[in-house]
Amino acid sequence: MTDTVLYEQDGAIVTITLNMPEIRNPISEREVVDALVEYLDRMNADSSVRVGILTGAGSAFSSGGNVRKMRDEAETRAKAPALTPKYYKFGIQRIPLAFERLDVPMIAAVNGPAIGAGLDLATMCDMRIAAESAKFAESFVKVGIVPGDGGAWLLPRVVGFSKACEMALTGDSIDAKEALACGLVSRVVPDAELMTEARKLAQRIAVNPPHAVRMAKRLLMEGRHTRLDTLLEMSAAMQSLAHATADHREAATAFLEKRRPNFTGE
Predict the structure, then answer these.
(1) 65 and 45 co-located in one domain
(2) Same domain, 21 and 98
(3) Which CATH number covers residue 176?
(4) Which residue in 1, 7, 83, 180 has a CA-CA distance of 20 to 30 Å to 198?
(5) Segment holding 205, helix H or strand E
(6) Based on the domain organization, do 199 and 235 belong to the same domain?
(7) pLDDT tens for residues 226-250?
(8) CA dihedral (186, 189, 192, 198) positive or negative
């Protein structure tokens, strides 16, 4: 589709790479939005995909928006403010909605700075591993704007309301060590080991029954905003499907026979 975002599948694991290292991998351009949305939907529809990894090429994960373009378009935007909501709705806001649809577990391998919408992109993923050189900033206020891509919904659900307010209202950056301390990432590893560790985590997920993994992720996603009684109904319905799979029978049989299970996705 485009070489600005790369899609590579190796067995059951897909790696999506933001590939504009010369400008630090912004995600606000339409071609990048289109590619990310297409690739996420492609993963969701492909039963051979069990886990995804999202990373950036070069020294940055993602710089978020293109500040130079923001400056150049500021006067035009100011003269026609009613057009900006449409720009967001049919542009960058399509990305968090695509992640919301995604049943495949997604790991962000944060290889460098994740700034503004780049940080929000990392929070759209289910898990985050950071390289030691990674930095994170909810920096929209630093350029006089607000999180337009869902960051005000996403970030508090990852780090809690107080820390999200601190990050969003100061715009200050935090390093990987602080990101680990506040729960923004679950692990910090040496830069050279980032993709190896991300793949190890992906493989630990991919060995499990794929229907059960996708349904468990969906329940976790819905649990962020659904009432307990509603989630229990959903859980019971999904459990009836899980009990009917060949992988469930294989798991129970392998456990009793004390052997490694062989899951086929059936």
Answers:
(1) yes
(2) yes
(3) 3.90.226.10
(4) 1
(5) helix 194-206
(6) no
(7) 999 999 999 999 999 999 999 999 9
(8) negative
d(CA 80, CA 73): 11
Distance CA 258, CA 177 (A): 40
On whether residue 266 sits in a domain, the answer given is no
Residues 226, 141 share a domain: no
Supply 54's token pair. Answer: 């999202």
Number of residues that make up the chain: 266
DSSP 25: -
Q: Could you tell me if 33 and 116 lie in one domain?
A: yes
Q: What is the pTM of this model?
A: 0.93
Kindly tell me the burial class for residue 232, based on how many C-beta atoms sit within 10 Å of its own C-beta (0-12, 13-18, 19 or more).
Answer: exposed
The three-class DSSP label of residue 135 is: strand
Task: Show the domain range for 216.
Answer: 210-257
* Residue 154: closest CA among 97, 80, 192, 72: 97
Number of neighbouring beta carbons within 10 Å of residue 256: 8
Which CATH number belongs to the domain containing residue 228 in this structure?
A: 1.10.12
